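Re: the request from the purification team.
They wanted to know what the chain is likely to look like in 3D before they choose a buffer screen. I agreed to run a prediction and write the result into the notebook, where they can find it.
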Amino acid sequence: MGSMSEWYVRLEGRKCDLQELSKLFSLPNPIVCEEHGEYILKSRMFSELEDSNEVFDMATHILELVHGVAKLILGDFEAVRADAVWRFDEEGHKRVAMIFSETIAMTARASMTTTAVTANGPIDSEQSSSESNSWLGAALRHNDMAKALLFMREPNWYNLFKVYEVIRDAIGGKREILKSGWVTKQELSLFCQTAQSWEAVGDAARHAAKKYITPKDPMSLSRATSLITGLLCNWIESCIQQEARTPKPMNE
């Protein structure tokens, strides 16, 4: 039985995709779970909200980040949307505010599948749930991380370069990225040259000016997606580890 203080957001989508999300996001804040044949999004972030529209807006934000994390770990899955918001009254009766006209789009299945690669190698299935919950929590705390994940939902050349820029600015420049060992100088240079060249990638390029020289052997989009996926995964994990090493104030 639900409580008056707890909001529930029902999710709609293909069962196989909802099942994957329930495996990835299984910790209390937030959580995707199955109840009576329905898939539900719950979060402590809903607890202080009084209006169903506020809950829907918060669910939108959470699901956008869920999508970004899932793209890193799963590679691809089809659209999942918020279908209804409800809570229980003091007598235990479900009070539903139905929302059908607005959806939370999680872009259509891509033609490529990527595997997240960190400094310790590919993320295996045993790590995925722990990683996804940890990364989502970090993204909810850090705006730069959230921004990068939002761009990662649709990994085209334009968005991949934005992810790189977010990480570059957050870490203190290209030199710091190379010092980290997450990517080689040759790979990063080829990615940047390809992404900025109109001759290499057409209208998807960052620029159209002739000064951006086309590389002799441009990087493919699938390779670029893998490269930036690995860079983003390593950066997120580095931020989490640094956060864990930072002493917390005594009053927390």
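For the purification team: The first strand starts at residue 7 and ends at 13.
Please add any questions underneath this entry.
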